[in-house]
Design a protein that fits this description.
single chain; 365 residues; alpha+beta; 13-stranded mixed β-barrel; two-stranded antiparallel ribbon; 5 helices; 19 strands; 16% helix
Length: 365
């Protein structure tokens, strides 16, 4: 068991890396690097109002590991792809259709889990009659060693998480069913995430002995929205306290309140009204044009405090990502989908078509 003292990490004292899109020149993939962004540029945190991530004492098993994830929508689709880094995405795009020496190099890297996506979230329409099936999230795997081919995203994958969504009187209920090992279904487990209709909170049922909460907030003109991930302090209420087996919130929960009020009366509570030990923060940055699409990049700084993987020093490989990180990434995919949906509705109301936006994630300790 590792106890993390109440201290500011070295990463918190430094400027965070730049998230300008890093693309290869021509068909040549960028050289492999363990740099978080494949370059040495720095991001002016004041310019983009990036909150400093403060780690309070939390007890977990494992190491504190830094990640830089990138999440974006596939072209002409609402589906969402997650990469370990921009460098991984750039290599994956550059190695498509590789031949000769590039093929051999790509094959060697992909067999080790490099230069390929990590997750794919496929959205299901809730318009079908009484359907609660919301999203299927696949985890990708390296191409088999016995086959002389590059990674194929339609084959080299398995269902890692199934998500259902159901509307209740005062909240939305998401149920996430995880399959960490498809060969061992005994390891399957489920979590509930409760989205309060009035308060800006998404409470998560107990995971690894801790209660977590995402808190939604607006951060200003340059950033339309953000989500802060907190570990809820002992003694503070959560919507998942005494939650039923089927995910129904206890009627006596102090956070639940009146259903009529929750649906019709605006909340006067803000992020500061829901304190906790900050574990991560996701925030949207300013717009920019790339590849003829309008993007709304988002960065997500997160402390992976539970990583026991043997490959954690090879942070560009999908093999280095712990199940704990994957669990939170699945939740981030849900937020990504919901925010894209809100943005499309806003643009539709303004007489414009909605855009599908990429998402930058940084898991940091």
């Amino acid at each position: 068991m590792t106890f993390l003292s109440n201290r500011s990490s070295k990463r918190n004292q430094e400027e965070l890396p730049s998230y300008d899109d890093h693309q290869p020149n021509g068909d040549v993939a960028p050289a492999y690097s363990n740099e978080k962004n494949g370059n040495n540029e720095k991001l002016d945190s004041k310019k983009d109002d990036v909150p400093v991530v403060d780690l309070e004492p939390i007890v977990f098993d494992g190491k504190v590991v830094d990640w830089d994830f990138m999440v974006y929508n596939e072209n002409f689709s609402h589906d969402i792809l997650t990469f370990v880094s921009q460098d991984a995405r750039a290599k994956y795009k550059a190695f498509k259709g590789s031949e000769g020496k590039n093929f051999d190099r790509a094959l060697d890297l992909q067999r080790e889990g490099f230069a390929m996506p990590l997750l794919k979230a496929e959205h299901h329409s809730l318009a079908r009659l009484h359907s609660t099936k919301y999203m299927t999230i696949y985890k990708y795997t390296p191409p088999p060693a016995a086959e002389n081919r590059l990674f194929d995203k339609s084959i080299d994958r398995y269902v890692f998480c199934e998500v259902t969504k159901e509307r209740c009187a005062s909240y939305y209920k998401y149920k996430l069913t995880f399959t960490p090992d498809p060969k061992n279904p005994k390891n399957d487990f489920s979590l509930f995430m409760i989205d309060h209709q009035r308060y800006p909170i998404f409470d998560i049922s107990t995971y690894k002995g801790r209660r977590f909460r995402f808190v939604y907030g607006h951060t200003g003109f340059r950033c339309k929205w953000s989500y802060e991930l907190n570990a809820i302090h002992d003694g503070e209420p959560s919507l998942t306290d005494d939650i039923s087996i089927d995910g129904k919130v206890n009627k006596n929960n102090p956070l639940l309140g009146n259903a009529w009020k929750n649906n019709l009366v605006p909340s006067t509570k803000f992020r500061s009204d829901f304190p906790g030990a900050r574990v991560g923060v996701a925030l949207e940055t300013s717009e920019y044009f790339h590849s003829l699409q309008l993007h709304f990049p988002v960065r997500f700084a997160f402390q992976d405090l539970m990583n026991n993987g043997a490959d954690v020093n090879h942070t560009e490989s999908i093999n280095s990502i712990s199940t704990d990180s994957l669990v939170f990434l699945c939740m981030v995919s849900i937020f990504k989908r919901e925010e894209d949906h809100k943005e499309r509705k806003r643009r539709s109301n303004n007489g414009r078509r909605g855009s599908r936006s990429p998402f930058l994630l940084s898991l940091s300790g």
